[in-house]
Design goal:
The protein has ten helices and nine strands. With about 300 residues, the chain is an alpha/beta fold. It folds into two domains: about 5-15 and about 70-245, Ribonuclease H-like superfamily/Ribonuclease H (Nucleotidyltransferase, domain 5), CATH 3.30.420.10; about 260-290. A five-stranded mixed sheet has the order 3-2-1-4-7, with helices on both faces. A two-stranded antiparallel ribbon has the order 5-6. A two-stranded antiparallel sheet has the order 8-9. Strand 5 and strand 6 (about 165-170) form a beta hairpin. Helix 4 packs across helix 5 (about 135-150). The two termini are about 20 Å apart.
Length: about 300
């Protein structure tokens, strides 16, 4: 089996399956006090049973958006060695079964077997030189890491590390790699793909364009294979977007001689000039190499 240069991932999530956490979140939302600057009409409506129930349900469903609480229902991935990286704009990408990851759970709280398999699959294919790709990849990686920890599953050896609010390793976020001028460069995957000339596939669910807000409803309806198809389409779109953004994996991505090397050279020059002590120089070089994913785990 060839190891992967590119690891493209996407997860779909549903609200927390932990009943104690669900109870606390619902109670907190139910008992939340209305802001003092709200109108009299809103204040009068705030504590009605209907309003409290709607507020509690929304708070529960919003846990699907939080890596700390979200429960993973579907995982899809693509592991590509250098020889299998497609050309930019390829409409159809042929993958063999060894390169593809597609799995889902059919009942809340039954995610252990699925996530143990995902960890093993990634561990067999990823190396310290693999680039982890996704749209808002920090969410996908965060959900996986928190779920593995909660279920006491050992993460893959070369899985990126999360330290001090940032991911250490070779991660490439197709969303955050696009300057948009908006807060945190937030933009949906299909919208960004269209702006880059990529004809992204789209699915519909109950006559609505499928997106993350409909995942829980589809899960409750038992549409597990549909959710897997939706997740897989995001993996393919993220790969095509990555290839456009990096000129076919050639520019603006992770290479052994790129920015990390330039930073290390600057650190060594500062040491030679006497502005850094040897200890400071060594610590700085270590931190740069760790963040770039150039150190063995």
């Amino acid at each position: 089996m060839q190891t992967a240069r590119l690891m493209v991932l996407d997860v779909e999530t549903i609200p927390t399956g932990n009943k104690k956490i669900e109870k606390c979140i619902r109670e907190e939302a139910w008992n939340k006090e209305v802001a003092k600057n709200k109108s009299k009409e809103l204040k009068a409506e705030w504590n009605t049973e209907t309003a409290c129930r709607e507020r509690a349900e929304k708070a529960f469903r919003d846990t699907a958006k939080q890596p700390l609480h979200a429960q993973i229902c579907t995982v899809c991935g693509l592991a590509l060695p250098v020889s299998a990286i497609p050309e930019i704009g390829a409409q159809v990408v042929v993958h063999n079964k060894e390169n593809t990851l597609k799995c889902y759970q059919t009942k809340t709280g039954m995610e252990f077997a699925m996530l143990e398999f995902v960890a093993e699959w990634l561990n067999e294919r990823a190396t310290q030189n693999s680039v982890w790709i996704g749209h808002n990849i920090g969410f996908d990686l965060g959900c996986l890491l928190n779920s593995w920890r909660r279920l006491q599953i050992t993460p893959p050896k070369h899985f990126p590390r999360y330290i001090r609010s940032s991911w250490r390793g070779r991660t490439f976020d197709t969303m955050n790699s696009t300057p948009t001028g908006t807060f945190k460069d937030l933009i949906k995957l299909d919208e960004l793909a269209e702006l880059h000339g990529i004809n992204a596939k789209s699915l519909e669910y109950k006559k609505q364009k499928m997106d993350g807000s409909l995942v829980y409803e589809a899960f409750l309806d038992g549409q597990y294979e549909f959710l897997q198809s939706y997740c897989w389409q995001d993996v393919e779109t993220a790969l095509q977007l990555y290839l456009v953004q990096t000129s076919g994996d050639q520019w603006g991505t992770y290479q052994a001689t790129e920015s990390a090397g330039e930073q290390i050279r600057a650190i060594k020059e500062a040491f030679k000039a006497g502005t850094l002590t040897e200890t400071q120089m060594r610590c700085s070089v270590f931190a740069i190499m760790e963040k770039a994913g150039l150190l063995p785990a």
